[in-house]
Amino acid sequence: MNRTLSVLPAGEHAEVTAIGGDADFRRRLLELGLAPGAKVRVVRAAPLGDPIEIEVRGFRLVLRRAEAAEIALGPHNGDAAALDAPTPAPVDLPSHPTEAERAAPTKNTRRCRVALAGNPNTGKTTLFNLLTGARAKVGNFPGVTVERQLGDVELPSGTTVELVDIPGTYSVNARSQDEELALAELVGLGGSPAPDAVVVILSATALERSLYLLLQLREFGLPVVAAVNLLDEAAREGLEIDLPQLARRLKVPVVGLVARTGRGVPELLSALDALLAAPPPPLPERWPWQTDLEHASVLDGLRAAAGAALGKDAPPTRRQAFALSRLMAPADGTQDGQAGDAVRAAVAETRRQLAKRGEDLDLTVSHGRYRYLERQVRPCLRHTAPAGRTPRTERIDAFLTHPVGGLLIFLVVLALIFTAIFDWAAPLMDAIDQGFGRLSQWLGARLPASLWSDLLANGVVKGVGSVLTFLPQIVILFLLLTLLEGTGYMARAAFMMDRVMRKIGLHGRALVPMISGYACAIPAVMATRTIENPRDRLLTMLVIPLVSCSARLPVYTLLIGALFHAERKVLGPLSLGVVLMILTYLVSTLLTLLAAAVLGRTVLKGKRLPLLIELPPYRLPTPRVVALVLWHRVRMFLRTAGTIIVVASVVLWALLAFPREARYSQDYEAAIRAAGPNSEAAALLRTQQQGERVQQSYAGRVGHFIEPALTPLGFDWKIGIGLVGAFAAREVFVATMGLVYGVGQEVTEKDATLRQALRNQRRPDGRPVYTPLTGLSLIVFFMIAMQCLSTVAVVRQESRSWGWTTFMVGYLWVAAYLASLATYQLGRLLGFE
Q1: pLDDT-wise least confident of 175-184, 252-261, 358-367, 588-597
Q2: In 3D, which of 754, 740, 763 has the Cα closest to residue 693?
Q3: How far apart are CA 193 and CA 160, in angstroms?
Q4: Which residues make Cβ contacts (< 8 Å) with residue 511, sequence separation at least 6?
Q5: Pseudo-torsion of CA 715, 720, 721, 725, nearest 10°?
Q6: How far apart, in whole angstroms, are the C-alpha atoms of residue 561 and residue 263?
Q7: Element holding 381 (H helix, E strand)
Q8: Exposed, middle or buried, 326 (CB in 10 Å: 0-12/13-18/19+)?
Q9: CB 528 within 8 A of CB 541
Q10: How confident is the prediction for the chain on average, in pLDDT?
Q11: What ranges in 378-424 are assigned the alpha helix state H?
């Protein structure tokens, strides 16, 4: 009886004999070369025993044991038998094209468009940044909101071409939105023209796997240049590639690259220049890998439907290849959005025919392609490394993913990230905040008193300041994440933590964004970009606001210090204030995990997706690439979320500033003149006047309006004003309370005067407004409620959906209200009021 991959001991080789399990996941494994006949080795298991790391065709993948159990193994017999077998003659696909199909497309005089395609982790984006730099533009793919990068590149002949960075993909058989967009750009769907040429980035250390995509593009009849990148890594592993022989065998231009340093880039541009200047090569009428005549006839029947999607000028070979890619795409058709109704209907019928005949098209095609690639590639490779030498990446992994040491190192990395965005960024954030605060005060003092000067000083300037205040955290976090992602450690973190995160329905990569949320939700939400699966990424975004960020800390400190005996020792050396603060963070963490578990099983419920992560070799990203990545991300934040934040800040200013006329309890202007304009008494009078204006503003009216709803929580209308003001940012609650109670806007959470003002507040019947129970209810509310406009803006930016953003705000507010209500009312029943 055959063993399965899930029980193969670490370090032992075996040969794949069969693959079962989920059909879509099986297709992906076949496309990655994990097909019958492939040699596979288990490298190691994760520190918690699951998932496992395997090696196949020169690269490494992470699979869970549940999926590995569907892969049957036999003894490894070497590669000679498979390569010595006679090569079957290629089958003519399709049959003779019609005259209409032979008609040549009309010549297009537009500027040449070149696509940059390749697998993830092959250095594609590094090359794009090297060729285009800061000149790259960011736009949306046609018809969707996913962004793409475009840049102009000048060729040696002086011709300027437009370079399009295609999302990384292993195959044109689209299984995600990114891969669907890659297919659309490469073959011309949804109104986009097909590119004039494609530069395919190949990994020198995983050449067979990388060439699978190039072979598919050749089937579409696209002119390609093969750029074999990472030659330096291949040399370190003792692997030499005969590039001229590879070019002769594949019949495409092949150039060697080290994109990280720029080596080979001039040769690549020359090869691309020559390809664009030469007349288009004749389109092949057959593919060079084995298939059978029944499959040929099945694909031939899809040609008409494919032509309707690609356009009347699409050549027969491209129609045939497109039909095959649709047949090998997910069976549920979720990624057929741009294919058209005719293609979807034809594909569904063809799948029924194949199922009726019991044919395994996925296995036949994938196995045929890899057998062809093995025969073309392996004669071009020469291994010079001593037998038995452990690769450098494997030696590093033995240390960084060790069952004990690896977890300790990961905790140190998390502590470093947390410290960096919590402590290191604080001085810069404070300096920016104080700088804009002084600028606002300076403008208020220098400009003539008017509506417009108030708008500029307290609306626009403070709004811009609130945006720029986050930049140090964003830059520091993304610098660290770029380094972790670029070196390959981020994939290892997901490998180690997947078992823990899977218990609550999250991806292993979600841990770093969630930990970052303790500092600030804004960079934490942006950090979810490292999660590939859209559902897992959205779920992580929706629960990150529950993590107690640093902006909540001033509110907690004010309420605990004012309403509890914070200095009293309760647990040995621990004071009551420290214990309450620890409990606050512990409860918020538990609520975050609970929300993830509930949302993942309800509104975001779906079938459990198998884990499939590629573990790239360890690399050191270049400073130029890191700087460009940071620049693009900062620019995106300022352009999108920053715009929303500034506009919303102006709206909140208007709520606090209007109406302009207010009825004061005394003639403050006369009192200020009598006290002396520069005296402390005058400053106190101005603060009291500002407090009365706030109480009579639209924000104050909102506070009065919502007071009936807040009363069951133990809050009054003045706390309602604080909640409205805190929507700009949670820490604004402290300054708003200072204004409302006439203490001053520049107070801090440790200000004794403000704390005493809270204790002195009385209701109309004489009862205190702020009691320990009220403070606890307010802490619970702030722990859960979505009181951060900037986070709302960033979630909208990253999710590309106002619907999900509105849902996030709504469920958090409802949950906060119910939790606060339960806290206050239960406390009253137990006699704690």
Answers
A1: 175-184
A2: 740
A3: 18
A4: 414, 493, 497, 500, 501
A5: 120
A6: 61
A7: strand 381-383
A8: buried
A9: yes
A10: 79
A11: 392-400, 405-419
417 closest CA partner among 374, 360, 498, 481? 481
Q: Which two tokens stand for residue 84?
A: 């010595």
Task: List pLDDT tens digits, range 319-328.
Answer: 777 878 877 7
Instruction: Find all residues with CB under 8 Å of 251, minimum gap 6, and list them.
Output: none
Instruction: With 0.90 as the threshold, say if the pTM is over it.
Output: no
Q: Which residue has the tokens 């509110």?
A: 555
Nearest CA to 173 among 303, 35, 24, 18? Answer: 24
Q: What angle do CA 642, 648, 651 make, to 5 degrees?
A: 150
Strand, coil or helix: what is 659?
Answer: coil
Q: Is the CB of residue 18 less than 8 Å from the CB of residue 354?
A: no
Residues 6+ apart with CB under 8 A from 76: 13, 14, 15, 39
- With a pLDDT cut of 70, the percent of the chain lying above it is 82
Bridge partners of residue 19, in order along the sequence: 71
Q: Of 696, 458, 498, which is closest to residue 610 (Cα–Cα)?
A: 498
Judged by DSSP in three states, 200 sits in: strand
- Distance CA(36)–CA(360), nearest Å, equals 13
Residue pair 770/824 in contact by the 8 Å Cβ criterion: no
- Strands 224-229 and 147-154, sheet pairing: unpaired
- Does the bond joining 659 to the residue before it have cis omega, within 30 degrees of 0? yes
Strand partners, 328: none
Pairing relation of β-strands 160-165 and 113-118? parallel
CA distances to 198, 322, 692 from 220, rounded to whole Å, are 11, 7, 72
Which DSSP string do the residues of 56-88 spell out, in sequence order?
Answer: ETTEEEEE-HHHHTTEEEE----SHHHHHSPPP
Strands 239-241 and 197-203: unpaired
CB 255 within 8 A of CB 227: yes
Residue 369 in tokens: 């392609």
Tell me how far apart the 2 most distant CA atoms of the chain are, in Å: 106
pLDDT tens for 668-677 read: 777 777 777 7
d(CA 676, CA 685): 11
d(CA 85, CA 522): 58
Dist CA 333 CA 609 (whole Å) = 16
Q: What is the C-alpha separation between 670 and 687, in angstroms, rounded? A: 15
E strands, 249-380, in order: 254-256
- Number of Cβ within a 10 Å radius of residue 99: 6
Which DSSP state fits 197? Answer: E
Find tokens 């804009």 and name the residue.
436
Which helix (H) or strand (E) covers residue 571, if one does?
Answer: strand 569-571
336-374 b/e with 16+ CB inside 10 Å = b? bbbbbeebbebbeebbeebeeeeeebbbbbbbbbbbbbb
Helix residue spans in 119-253 (DSSP H): 124-132, 177-187, 207-219, 231-236, 243-250
pLDDT at 543: 92
Instruction: Provide the 3-class DSSP secondary structure of residue 253.
Output: coil
The helix (H) or strand (E) run that includes residue 512 is: helix 511-516
- Could you give phi then psi for residue 40, rounded to 5 degrees? -135, 150
Q: Buried b / exposed e across 620-651, counting CB within 10 Å, b at 16+?
A: ebbeebbebbbebbeebbbebbbebbbebbbe
Kindly report, residue by residue over 507-559, the tens digit of the pLDDT.
777 877 887 787 778 878 877 876 767 788 889 999 999 988 777 877 888 88
CB within 8 A of 207, min separation 6: which ones?
58, 228, 241, 377, 381
- Give me the amino acid identity at 114: V
